[in-house]
């Protein structure tokens, strides 16, 4: 079982988007339909969703015109309106606007083993099980010689990824009291600009600080020289460094003390604390050079008190069903991703997809 892949041949943003939209047309439409269903169950009206999509498009055009143009190209190729593609890219912002919540979400581990050794990273990507067909792997070259490879969703400009400048990003959702329904720059576009433009943690953080956001997330930037969990919210941006042993773990609550005062996610999803404890308790294994062993060190199910590897409760509505849809690591030395379709409980040496 592998995720679909796509390599762009176009370098101009609108043309690149149109190529992707035409080649992945059915998947993008299905992803939009899946989010439309999710937003409806979460309490959003169609009129609200369209308005938020249009706001996201406007904010994106002001902050990153090339990325707004690329979204318009995707829409053209997929036979959609630009605001509909913006909705897919702004799904975090829309869910924050309707105060969506539920027990689930991602866990990220980064260990810096020491000078001359590459970072050891792995994360689970948890999302709603009815969207399990949304992920794809996308390679693009936004400028000559600079290649971006990203694990993302059909129609979204980026998520988890690496670039050939030696930087990669992991991605976890957060919630803050400052989150607002006045939709700002989508956090998925921040991840894309970081992958396009940054080679250091400091450059990645500067890009995050330049965006006016309405929803919260953490983008953990990793290079051969270091790492930082860039916590982003309307209340501000903070960079959480690794500890003295080079360990940097993140789940779905703020770690920066000032931003943590406005924490909203963990009050409804206390499992995030148990997941973080599990990661920290297994820091030695998570710092090993064998990727399969790192993934297996993540393994923990709900009965063990830390649902790092999630499985959906089919008795629940779609907005309360969570599944670990992917397990992902960054190979910064080679500028590639290692991806397993599903959670750590199904990982073997043979299930890794290299991209």
Q: Would you kindly provide a brief summary of this structure?
A:
InterPro entries: C45_proenzyme-like (IPR047794), Peptidase_C45 (IPR047801), Peptidase_C45_hydrolase (IPR005079). This is Peptidase C45. The protein has 13 helices and 14 strands.
Explain the overall architecture.
With 355 residues, the chain is of the alpha+beta class. The chain has 2 domains: 5-97, Arc Repressor Mutant, subunit A, CATH 1.10.10; 107-354, 4-Layer Sandwich (Penicillin V Acylase, Chain A), CATH 3.60.60.10. It is built from 13 helices and 14 strands. The protein has helices spanning 13-23, 25-42, 46-63, 65-78, 82-89, 91-97, 187-197, 201-209, 257-260, 265-268, 271-281, 283-286, 291-298; strands at residues 5-7, 107-111, 120-127, 135-143, 146-153, 160-163, 167-174, 216-223, 226-233, 236-240, 247-250, 323-331, 336-341, 353-354. It starts with a strand and ends with a strand.
């Amino acid at each position: 079982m592998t995720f679909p892949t796509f390599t762009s041949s176009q370098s101009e943003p609108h043309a690149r988007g149109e190529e992707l939209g035409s080649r992945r047309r059915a998947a993008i439409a299905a992803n939009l339909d899946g989010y439309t269903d999710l937003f409806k169950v979460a309490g959003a009206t169609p009129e609200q969703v369209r308005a938020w999509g249009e706001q996201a498009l406007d904010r994106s055009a002001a902050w990153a015109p090339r990325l707004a143009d690329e979204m318009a190209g995707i829409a053209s190729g997929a036979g959609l309106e630009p605001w509909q593609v913006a909705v897919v890219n702004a799904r975090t912002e829309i869910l924050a606007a309707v105060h969506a919540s539920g027990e689930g979400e991602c866990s990220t581990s980064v260990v810096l083993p020491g000078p001359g050794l590459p970072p050891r990273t792995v994360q689970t990507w948890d999302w709603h099980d009815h969207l399990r067909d949304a992920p794809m792997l996308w390679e693009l070259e936004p400028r000559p010689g600079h290649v971006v490879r990203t694990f993302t969703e059909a129609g979204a400009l980026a998520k988890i990824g690496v670039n050939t400048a030696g930087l990669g990003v992991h991605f976890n959702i957060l919630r803050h009291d400052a989150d607002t329904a006045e939709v700002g720059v989508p956090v998925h576009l921040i991840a894309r600009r970081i992958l396009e433009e940054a080679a250091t943690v400091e450059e990645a953080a500067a890009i995050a600080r330049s965006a006016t956001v309405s929803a919260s997330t953490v983008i953990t930037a990793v290079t051969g020289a270091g790492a930082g969990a860039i916590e982003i919210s309307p209340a501000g941006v903070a960079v959480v460094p690794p500890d003295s042993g080079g360990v940097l773990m993140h789940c779905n609550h703020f770690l920066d003390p000032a931003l943590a005062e406005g924490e909203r996610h963990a009050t409804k999803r206390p499992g995030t604390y148990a997941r973080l404890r599990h990661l920290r308790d297994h820091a030695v294994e998570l710092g090993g050079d064998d990727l399969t062993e790192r993934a297996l060190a993540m393994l923990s199910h709900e009965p063990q008190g830390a649902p790092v590897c999630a499985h959906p409760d089919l008795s629940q509505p779609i907005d309360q069903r969570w599944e670990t849809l992917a397990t992902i690591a960054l190979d910064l030395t080679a500028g590639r991703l290692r991806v397993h379709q599903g959670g750590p409980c199904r990982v073997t040496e043979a299930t890794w997809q290299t991209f």
